[in-house]
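Support request, please re-run this one:
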Amino acid sequence: MTNKQIANAFDELANLMELHEEDDFRIRSYRNAYLNLRKLDRPLAEMSDAEIKAIKGVGPAIAGKIRELVTNGQMATLEKYREKTPPGVVEMLEVNGFGPKKVRVVWQEMGIETVGELWYACNENRLIEYKGFGLKTQEDLKNKLEYFLKSRDKIHLDAAEEEADFIGAWLVGKLPGARVAPVGELRRRCPVIEKLEILVGYAGDLSPALDGATLTLEHQKDTTWQVRLENNTSAFIHRCEPSEFGSKMFKHTGSPAFVETFAKAHPGIDFKNLEHEEQVFEKAGQPYVAPELRETTLPPSPAKGRHEELIEDHDLKGILHVHTTWSDGLHSLREMCEHVRSLGYAYIGITDHSQAAFYANGLKPARVLAQWEEIDRLNEELAPFRIFKGIESDILTDGSLDYEEDVLRRFDFVIASVHSNLKMSKEKATSRILSAIENPHTTILGHPTGRLLLSREGYPLDWEKVFEACSRHHVAIELNANPYRLDLDWTLIPEAVRHGIPISINPDAHSKDGVHDVRYGVMVARKGALTAAHCLNALDAAGFEQKIRR
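Re-run finished. Output below.
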């Protein structure tokens, strides 16, 4: 099991124990274990018992439970609480913002045991009769439940990629000589994957690869098998003859709308039995269209479909939006800088949290000055690698930025982000964001809608007003590359570019591993037809410095 999976097991255990009103001390211990274990660099599976016990907040009892998970993939205590809790009640705990105390009320006092029943109770105004549930709380919960139900069985882009890699490796190992590739939404780099699809070019039977343990067959129709993995992820495997692999890649990659539009645009051409996908476009007499752009209909112009026109990983020259141990990051300033430099980037933009983010150890002005001194020393030592002094400044409720004028003006650049009071009407959210954009110290608008994919919808904005303001005040917009955000949404990128607004692809990294999330940002930036010419951190260090000064 990964550290993340082990940490999540303790989080679930704490929630279940709180649901059953168990000992507060043990619950806090398990919550602390969750927080500490998820931050570890080294895999717990590689540690000795003594090393595990030396971890902060891990005593002998928790160490024993970690060893259980590493060895058996299960924890007896967690299984005990799962068995005594209806599955639907366990699922309620996954609803964002609906904690164990409120779950206990609807379960024990109202007899509700599934998410669907709970939504229906909200719809009938039954919750307002119970302590802790007013009309406003009930309406908020109903909206969260609807979002949860819509999101169920969907997975994030990074998780889908990981699952596809596992399935691909398994199939290649079981089917010698097979050609295996992801298709569908994953190949189109959709931020959320509703249907995970794999194409297999193989002349024989797929049955040897479906052993009932690793890949369990659920349904088969013609040449498509629906399977389920041990972790409950569902996937669809399409089989074709090796000689038609290219034709099927094209068919299963594009959305139905794209494939249908393409066929209508080229009547009378037979695209069957092509071994390589490029041959489809050659026969059609048009340039290759990148998979990311095959979402709805044909791209607006052939140039936007060309692979070489779209931004690529190597186009990024610097990494912006990075947190360190100065606020809530896992690694020190030096460690983050040296890691980014080792990856071949020319510069880094350090943006720890501002003082209003007290929950994230945000920097008071005195600590800002101390951090700048450390940055100055590292700039001398690591040159020509460049460290820019930035901040992720909270956009306060009235739209102003955290810190006074004399502090803000001394940063090299400022990422302005909303982190609190996210429940806003379109008018309120737009007014708040516009005030931040109009602030002369704002360089980049960070994760502009505040969304968390499959967990929290973003606040609504009047995008025409936002784009006009960013263009007028020379403010870039962040494409937050964290796979749980991917915010700005790819559908808005073309309009931002038309307004002349640079897009900054930022990892929002809180650790060295987090830096690598920029690849997911590049994926969805390509989906929005972004080129390097319109990407802020595709500039070299001198170009970036000139841009932010201007």
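The chain is about 40% helix and 15% strand. Confidence is low (pLDDT under 50) at residues 300-305.
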